Fold:
Amino acid sequence: MTSSYDVVIVGGGPAGSAAAWQAAQAGARVLVFDKADFPRDKPCGDGLTPRAVSYIQKMGLADQVAKFHRVNRATVFSPSRWDLAFPDRPGMPHHGHVARRLDLDLMLLDRAEFCGAEVRRGAEVAGPIVADGGRVAGVVLKSGERVAADAVIAADGAHSPIKRALKITSPYNGYAAIAIRAEMTACRPDVDSLDVHLQLKFRGDQLPGYGWVFPLGGGRVNVGLGYVNSYQKWQQINATQLLGEFLAGLPAEWQLPSIGELMAAKAVRAWRLPMGFTAWPPWRPGVLFAGDALGAARPASGAGISKALQSGLAAGECAVAALINGGPDDFTNYTQRIEDAWGKEYRRGRWFHRLVGVPAIAGVGLRALDAVSNPSARARLLFWEQWSDPGRLPSADTGVPGSGA
Structure:
């Protein structure tokens, strides 16, 4: 017998959990499938920006997210060092966190389940049920079980089985980043900064990417790097070797393990990150795409968790609103929501993605950035938004300007 739900969500990561929580809050009967048994890890930089934190707070998890290691600023090396507090956005925190996906994803999925969504872990979706006329009407599991749904939200990752089965195309296909990371112990204090290293080279070429060192707390760090595929020779890069070179360039007193030791411990994970909307428009009749299945990562930086949460929340809300007011054949409201929130930013990001793929341009841009003396001006050039001098922001703990951003 085929069971039936208002909304079926494929994927229990940040996008899927956010969509499930939002749809359940609106009173929908929601079912989430994920092929993994939780907790499970995912390769990621593990950084939560203030925007990501604000979405997690919205889900009623303010106390829980506060338990992760807190960061108050970013330290950028270009190679000159400059410190920046996070952007000052009304209604958002002035801090971020660093959270292992092992812990973060479990927390988010448990919250969706607590708030009314049904969750089936260890259940792999093989593809969509397609009704007459081409509308998605549910999903089929690898076991052969069929589950009907008025709306399906595909939050099933970069290699989305739903998207592949439907042969979804996008005018923005091809934008992607390659990333690699490892978690390790480090003999250094648990700092409150996300360290970003912009000088990343391959055979003398300045790469369109960056390296990072993000503190997890407890004497452990997430060290990694990423670069976009607009660089003509990107397929010639051995990402593991490049990570080893990056590790070797970090302070010797941190006593970091070598890339060989990390490989032997199976601590190194690499992944490809689609970005800039690899499913567009972001819906088809009966189905909406969110997170990596949408290609929601920011094309200028690869930031993914905040975009996954934001797209999931929007997909959950728009799916239920459309079902109530019109039916599953038209989710134009979701297109409008995504376009209003990200359209200008992502158009500019795709242009930037192509531009920095030229090593000469990337090199000149980095030298020019390094020559700018004002940190806020540098940040505006790099991030396209206003960041602040950490000493000018009030402390989140004391409210006293300059007392420790």
